[in-house]
Amino acid sequence: MMTLLRNLLIAALVVTGASGCAVNPVTGKQQLMFSSQEQDIATGAQHYQPSQQSQGGQYVVDPQLTSYVNQVGKKLAAVSDNPNLPYEFVVLNNDVPNAWALPGGKMAINRGLLVELKDESQLAAVLGHEIVHAAARHGASQQSKGMLVNAGVMLAGVAAMSQDSQYGALAVGAMGVGANAWMSKYSRDHELEADRYGVDYMIKAGYDPMGAVELQETFVKLSEGNQTSWLDGLFASHPPSRERVAANRRMAEQHPGGARNKAAFDKAMAQVRKDQPAYKDYVAAQKAAGEKNYSHALSLLDNATKQQPKENLFWELKGQILGTQKKNKEALTALDRAVQANPQFFRPYVYRGLVQRQLGNTDQAERDLIASQRLLPTQLASYHLGEINLAKGQRNQAVTYFQQAAQGGGEIGEAAKGQLAKLQ
């Protein structure tokens, strides 16, 4: 490991052609950095789509909401200290309250955080904070520090859904997403810096900075109450503190007034707010399915799909449960609806591919699994594609897929290694 770490550090220094320091574009101060801004932009672009896929995909029921968020974000980015980054903002279809920024200005805010906000100034507070993380190159700086501590941070993580059956065993293997290295917990200095300059961007863009104060006060109360969803989401990478509230308040009091734009925010949020009861049924259905109370889960999902038939997550979970129950034709119908609702999300293709295999539809199964791999390579899809190609006599292709699956570890990884041993 020490040899690997040393080689990584040497390579980083060679690439940058520097001692490992660069000027923070926001503060003008030197900070540890083993990559150029051009490399940051390339890194963010490379990981943006996989990061979205692995966290629920984009929210597509109301595309106007994403347009609105992007508009607010671009307004703030234009007054930032690094305005020429290729900023982009998306809404993720995820109930966990969270927002994040990748190097190079690629950002996301979860549906689960948006529904907790009260007006546009609070949205501006969230986005302004994330813009500073990107503009000041905090993610790349964190990554550089991580190289000094543990070379393992360079490896992709494994993310798995907690279900017993193969239908829930989606695991992103080593060929998958490594963006968590840039979304890990920010340092205290980085958070205070993002707060300070984020509020500054709000003021320059014409927003009431008290929105940032109110938001931080809410976050502190939630963190002190040990709200699980918040601890798993935003607070994992952005730990709130009373120190941050006080600092924001001092800045806001020096610049009273500014826009709240509540009417515009309420209009943009109308659909997702209307659908909140359906999403609550969905969350309850996930819990029931995890407890193997499938009949109750399906009942909740029936309610959810009646309230909002365009939400792909509802149909996907229904298909997943029906597949677990071996009700494959019904599962296929539900998964067809999921794919139709959002053809750009990987997970329904995986589940539908598994159901097609159960029904003996090998060609359709292969098409779905390949489609899923184009959106996000997963261990489960790789393993089943290996089996399909092995049965077709495509030995070399089967070996490639099994090698990919073996990288992910766990039961599927061991099964893939077993298949490879037989093929050697």
TrEMBL record:
<dbReference type="InterPro" id="IPR001915">
    <property type="entry name" value="Peptidase_M48"/>
</dbReference>
<dbReference type="GO" id="GO:0051603">
    <property type="term" value="P:proteolysis involved in protein catabolic process"/>
</dbReference>
<keyword id="KW-0862">Zinc</keyword>
<dbReference type="GO" id="GO:0016020">
    <property type="term" value="C:membrane"/>
</dbReference>
<dbReference type="GO" id="GO:0046872">
    <property type="term" value="F:metal ion binding"/>
</dbReference>
<dbReference type="GO" id="GO:0004222">
    <property type="term" value="F:metalloendopeptidase activity"/>
</dbReference>
<feature type="signal peptide">
    <location>
        <begin position="1"/>
        <end position="22"/>
    </location>
</feature>
<dbReference type="Pfam" id="PF13432">
    <property type="entry name" value="TPR_16"/>
</dbReference>
<keyword id="KW-0378">Hydrolase</keyword>
<protein>
    <submittedName>
        <fullName>Peptidase M48</fullName>
    </submittedName>
</protein>
<dbReference type="Pfam" id="PF13181">
    <property type="entry name" value="TPR_8"/>
</dbReference>
<dbReference type="Pfam" id="PF01435">
    <property type="entry name" value="Peptidase_M48"/>
</dbReference>
<keyword id="KW-0482">Metalloprotease</keyword>
<dbReference type="InterPro" id="IPR051156">
    <property type="entry name" value="Mito/Outer_Membr_Metalloprot"/>
</dbReference>
<keyword id="KW-0479">Metal-binding</keyword>
<feature type="domain" description="Peptidase M48">
    <location>
        <begin position="64"/>
        <end position="249"/>
    </location>
</feature>
<dbReference type="InterPro" id="IPR011990">
    <property type="entry name" value="TPR-like_helical_dom_sf"/>
</dbReference>
<comment type="similarity">
    <text>Belongs to the peptidase M48 family.</text>
</comment>
<keyword id="KW-0645">Protease</keyword>
<dbReference type="InterPro" id="IPR019734">
    <property type="entry name" value="TPR_rpt"/>
</dbReference>
<keyword id="KW-0732">Signal</keyword>
